[in-house]
Amino acid sequence: MITRRGLAALPLLATLPRPAAAQGGEWTPNRPVRIVVGFAAGGATDISTRTIQPKLQSLLGQPIVVDNRPGAGGNLATETVVRAPADGTTLLMGTIGALAINPTLYQNLPFNPQTDLTPIAMAGSVLNVLVVPADRPWRNVADLIAAARARPDTLSYGSSGVGGAGHLAGALLDRMAEVRTIHVPYRGGGPLMTDLLSGKTDFAFSTAPTALPQVEAGRLRALAVVTPRRSALLPDLPTVADTLPGYEVANWYALVGPKALPGNIVARLNAAMRETMEDPEVRANLARHGVEPLPGSPAELARFIREETAKWASIVRESGASVN
């Protein structure tokens, strides 16, 4: 099941029966399929979408066009798909931010992801790593928490923007460890990494592909992963949950479509996504980018989005983050 207690169970969903076609026979797109991505080319969501693109388009029999529409934390891309015809040719590779965090973070959102979009398939989860500059004395999560408790409102952590996974990972750490740290938002992962490497900030929750080269070069120290269990991608690295039981931040993304997408279209797209994410070459390529493929059913995805939205709503409110 897709639950907020752990995405680790998601691969088990690959063994479930494929969703039955409904509302007509098997669907085949009659023109190229556009997958809208709410971030610039080169980011984790974009790279993952382009990695699955060749296999997915071969299964659907039509070219797939990746349409990057960055802005407003993914909201511009989401609204593009909300307003698109429900014919299966305009889809969104949605993220935890766009689908679960933004409904609380943004005060005047003109759509509701739970009612204005159709869940199709879970895609994957990008591994996030808690890292600190190599010159800091902290060797593990307990050390970092102890330092934060000793110096309230002093230690700072950077993120690639307000309301993103990196921001709320820190807010969740504050809540569960009962500490107070300072959030420093940046305009993207590049400036964040620059200041972290220079020591201007004390820690960050960074995606594995961004952080690990700096860890291997000795400039950063990795303390833990944010998954509920150790990651197969970094099996020797402990989890934050080893120190704070129940801690989990799943930086996930999923394929969704416009509201009222017919059942036969959903079934075909879900089956194609599952087959794509089970392909050994696709899985290997995603792993190189720190992405764990996580196939699942539309119903399980819908439930997961509801649970994630509820989980992060309280954390967003507690953090005081808000965008008008």
TrEMBL record:
Signal peptide (residue range): 1-22
Pfam families found in the cross-reference section: TctC
Keyword Signal recorded: yes
CDD domains tied to this protein: PBP2_Bug27
Family annotation (InterPro entries): BUG (IPR005064), Bug_dom1 (IPR042100)
Superkingdom as given in the UniProt entry: Bacteria
Keywords: Signal
Protein family (similarity comment): Belongs to the UPF0065 (bug) family.
Listed name of the protein: Tripartite tricarboxylate transporter substrate binding protein
